[in-house]
């Protein structure tokens, strides 16, 4: 196994009918509980779709070692 492919991939999903969505008006409140080492998935398309307020709020929290996944090239 090479260094490049030694990571394990995991997939998690819920089979519950309950939804636990919460909407935030303050981007800092939305990201303040993201722990170090988390994987963060962000959507958007092109420059007009990047979540810049959430990214700036993540910087303010001081969280470290994030893996960011985005659909922007």
From TrEMBL:
Superkingdom of the source species: Eukaryota
Pfam families to which the protein is assigned, alphabetical: CoA_trans
UniProt organism field: Tetraodon nigroviridis (Spotted green pufferfish)
GO cellular component assignments: mitochondrion
Gene3D superfamilies: Glutaconate Coenzyme A-transferase (3.40.1080.10)
Protein name as catalogued: (spotted green pufferfish) hypothetical protein
Database matches in InterPro entries: CoA_trans_fam_I (IPR004165), CoA_transf_BS (IPR004163), NagB/RpiA_transferase-like (IPR037171)
Gene Ontology MF terms in the entry: succinyl-CoA:3-oxo-acid CoA-transferase activity
């Amino acid at each position: 196994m090479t260094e490049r492919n030694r990571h394990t991939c995991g997939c998690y999903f819920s089979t519950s009918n309950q939804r636990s969505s919460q909407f935030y008006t303050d981007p800092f409140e939305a990201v303040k509980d993201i722990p170090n080492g988390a994987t963060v998935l962000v959507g958007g398309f092109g420059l007009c779709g990047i979540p810049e307020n959430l990214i700036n709020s993540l910087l303010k929290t001081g969280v470290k070692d994030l893996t960011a996944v985005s659909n922007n090239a």
